[in-house]
Design a protein that fits this description.
four-stranded mixed β-sheet; 21% strand; pyruvate-formate lyase- activating enzyme; globular; alpha/beta; binds iron/sulfur cluster; single chain; OB fold (Dihydrolipoamide Acetyltransferase, E2P); five-stranded mixed barrel
């Protein structure tokens, strides 16, 4: 979501004649912030302290993102060198202020932006109506607001017309999307977007086990454009912990979704999130999570150690009773387990032909991109292939993180 917000603000500024540059040469520094964890919020404050040195009367410092919803105007009292506090998505007044402030005449052609434009992120739903007890999102992003399908489709067509090959539909809980004008939910939106001529791939994230509908899985399975990847956070493999997290489902529901999805798409890439050390997580509860990870064999698990986030129900009303050392032990145990699982699963790709959408070149100048199941792939001996092209490769090597292959004959 933050990447999409940054893109959206950057596009607006590029359209107004601004260009991206190094901090040393720039007139304006904008921090787009995340506060999902205390550590992210602390990084914003430390960056703001650092920028004190950089600030001059001619330069502008602005902050946008979730910290604005959380801290609001207090930020400017705390950091008097901060010029602007910009609410998420409400960029026009800020851009107008900048235009009034920097009255440059742009006589030379503008340098091109460094963006490849291969993937275009579109926010279709903002905020969240769930109230997971550990999560700050509903507080900072508010209740769900759904973007009309007609606007989403217009933006998708424009992006594809401008050269995007992949569209990524975003929402904190994207499965809950519905068109405010009554044209249907996420499955209907996906069906409409995938028909846009020239579009090669369509992704959506993040799903919620309580809201994901079977119809969406059927649309995915039937499509050559929709990617075979689900980002479906489980958070815990123990029903008592899930209840305390107020996730609204049990592990048997989650298993049923995975079974249905894999029946329809045996090669589905499955990504999840897991928190260890949530208040009240006993050793037995932790072992349930471990067993579930072994059973389901996710492709990627984003693992986090629970830390109380001020302003959430779990921080304010639950006792953080798992000692730090024990959380760390559980985290390391699951990291090691997942490394093994990911290596085992990735090795299954060796010898297979897969389709790669090229996104750019790595530090060794080798083209890289992602396969439809979400895994990163590097192409060896690919010649002049450019970002945005799609190519079939035969996988020669696989590590937990990526595949390496040659163009298929
Ligand atoms: S569904 Fe996701 S965004 Fe919404 S409250 Fe739960 S964790 Fe936060």
């Amino acid at each position: 979501m933050n990447a999409a917000d940054s893109e959206s603000l950057a596009r607006r500024l590029l359209a107004a004649g601004y260009v991206e540059d190094s901090l040393e040469r720039a007139d304006v520094a904008i921090l787009n912030t995340c506060v999902v964890r205390q550590a992210s919020e602390d990084r914003v404050y430390s960056k703001l302290h650092e920028l004190k040195e950089w600030k001059t009367p001619e330069r502008t410092i602005a902050v946008t993102g979730c910290i604005v919803a959380k801290e609001g105007e207090t930020l400017q009292r705390r950091f008097p060198h901060l010029d602007a506090v910009v609410p998420i998505g409400d960029y026009e007044p800020f851009v107008a202020d900048l235009e009034a402030r920097y009255d440059y005449s742009l006589g030379e052609p503008l340098p091109q932006s460094g963006r490849t434009g291969v993937s275009h992120y579109i926010r279709v739903i903002e905020g969240c109506d769930h109230n997971c007890t550990f999560c700050i999102v509903p507080k900072v992003r508010g209740r769900e607001k759904h973007v009309p399908m007609a606007s989403v489709l217009d933006e998708c067509r424009r992006a594809v017309g401008d050269g995007a090959k992949e569209i990524v539909l975003l929402g904190q809980n994207v499965d809950d999307y519905h068109d405010p004008d009554g044209r249907g939910g996420l499955a209907s939106l996906v069906r409409e977007v995938e028909r846009i001529p020239g579009l090669k791939r369509l992704r959506f994230m993040t799903s919620h086990p309580q809201d994901l509908e079977s119809e969406l899985l059927e649309v995915m399975a039937a499509s050559d454009v929709v990617c075979r990847e689900l980002q479906l956070p489980i958070q815990s493999g123990d029903d008592t912990v899930l209840k305390r997290m107020a996730r609204g489902y049990q592990t048997r529901h989650y298993r049923a979704i995975v079974e249905r999805a894999r029946n329809l798409m045996p090669d589905l890439g499955l990504v999840t999130d897991v928190i260890v050390g949530f208040p009240g997580e006993s050793e037995a509860a932790f072992m349930n999570t471990r067993a579930l990870m072994e059973e389901i064999e996710f492709d990627v698990v984003h693992l986090a150690m629970y830390s109380p986030r001020g302003g959430t129900f779990s921080a304010d009303r639950m006792h953080d009773d798992v000692p730090h050392q024990e959380k760390l032990r559980r985290l390391n145990d699951l990291l090691a387990l997942q490394r093994e699982i990911a290596a085992r699963k990735t090795a299954r790709w060796i010898g297979r032909d897969v389709e790669v959408l090229i996104e750019g070149r790595d530090e060794l100048n080798r083209p890289y991109g992602r396969i439809r199941q979400g895994k990163r792939a590097i192409v060896l001996r690919a010649g002049d292939i450019a970002a945005g092209q799609v190519l079939n490769i035969r996988v020669l090597q696989a590590t937990a993180g990526q595949l390496l292959g040659l163009p298929a004959a």
